[in-house]
């Protein structure tokens, strides 16, 4: 019989029968292996800016290898000077290190990014749960070729409502929506 692997949050939810946001230390012993989840979700502070931008850049290169460097440089500038100042942003933090973030402008997700070495551990789900607690209906635009982001949103219950061409890049972009 083969083994079944679950990410940390799925495993904890299966054990407890409850949804978890993992805002405190949880230790689960399974066949002698301890799984420790120690991140918390908090509001963004201006002092987080450099870590947030570094996460955005690293995760964006992984999720958007099809985008030009000039477009990415423009986006980095816009995030710093336009979007972060007007967005409601939450940070996932572990041991005082920023490991991910999600930003909302009204009830539209401007972005959700997690350090790649923290992917598939439930950090993104925790951030998304925070956004879902704020808004019962969420929207997001995601490049069709961003398989990492698209698969994550679909797993979080988002449904496609529109498909267009992104004017600046010429790539297909999907508009997704989540209803509680």
Automatic annotation (TrEMBL):
Q: Which Pfam families match?
A: Acetyltransf_7
Q: What is this protein called?
A: GNAT family N-acetyltransferase
UniProt keyword terms in alphabetical order: Acyltransferase, Transferase
Q: Which SUPFAM superfamilies match?
A: Acyl-CoA N-acyltransferases (Nat)
What are the residue boundaries of the N-acetyltransferase domain, all occurrences included?
39-180
Q: Which GO terms describe its molecular function?
A: acyltransferase activity, transferring groups other than amino-acyl groups
């Amino acid at each position: 019989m083969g083994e079944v692997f679950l990410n940390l949050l799925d495993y904890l939810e299966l054990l407890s029968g409850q949804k978890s946001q993992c805002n405190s230390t949880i230790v689960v012993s399974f066949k002698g292996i301890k799984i420790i989840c120690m991140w918390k979700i908090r509001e963004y502070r201006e002092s987080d800016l450099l870590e947030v931008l570094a996460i955005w850049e690293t995760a964006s290169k992984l999720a958007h290898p099809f985008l030009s460097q000039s477009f990415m440089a423009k986006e980095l500038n816009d995030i710093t000077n336009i979007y972060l100042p007007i967005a409601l942003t939450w940070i996932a933090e572990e041991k005082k290190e920023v490991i991910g973030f999600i930003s909302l402008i009204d009830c539209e997700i401007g972005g959700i990014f997690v350090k790649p070495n923290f992917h598939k551990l439930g950090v993104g789900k925790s951030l998304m749960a925070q956004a879902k607690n704020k808004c019962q209906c969420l929207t997001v635009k995601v490049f069709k070729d961003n398989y990492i982001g698209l698969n994550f949103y679909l797993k979080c219950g988002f449904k496609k409502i529109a498909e267009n061409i992104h004017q600046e890049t010429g790539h297909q972009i999907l508009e997704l929506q989540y209803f509680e």
